[in-house]
Amino acid sequence: MKAAPNLALFEKAMLPHLDAAYNLARWLTRNEDDAQDVVQEAYLRAFHFFDGFRGGDGRAWLLAVVRNTALTWLRRERGSTHVSFDEEMHVPAAAAATVETKLVEGAKFAELRNCLDLLPLEFREAVVMRELEEMPYRDIAEAASVPIGTVMSRLSRARQRLQDCLAARLREASE
To answer: 127: exposed, middle or buried (C-beta count within 10 Å: 0-12, 13-18, 19+)?
Structure first.
């Protein structure tokens, strides 16, 4: 019979990465409630398989579990629900901005968010891990189970698609 993982060690190694886990799940599932469910399931899986963790920074290992859990969830749920977005959760608060400045910044962020949401899943997860979670390429490669060159390629293509999308939306707005 397999021994139970050490709860205190698990909490020390994995709980600091709860926000990163939720952030990745949120972008992959595109839904706050679904992301919470995915993170809960991922943490249960991570605890169950914690004996496979070999130490060090647990973020890449945990985000791999979150990613795989989210991908499994997406395959199971594909096309069955409408996705909502909580604007207040993702729009940074501006300290002393005017209403006009807030509206302009909100519109720019909304466009970027919409363009990011249009990216294929593999590109979106790479951007989230690199740009939002500030993970090194090596850790992204480990979490996504792909070579580092694939991570670099996905990021390059994702950034180009984001640029193209934003440029197209700016052209549409100016017409």
So the answer is: buried
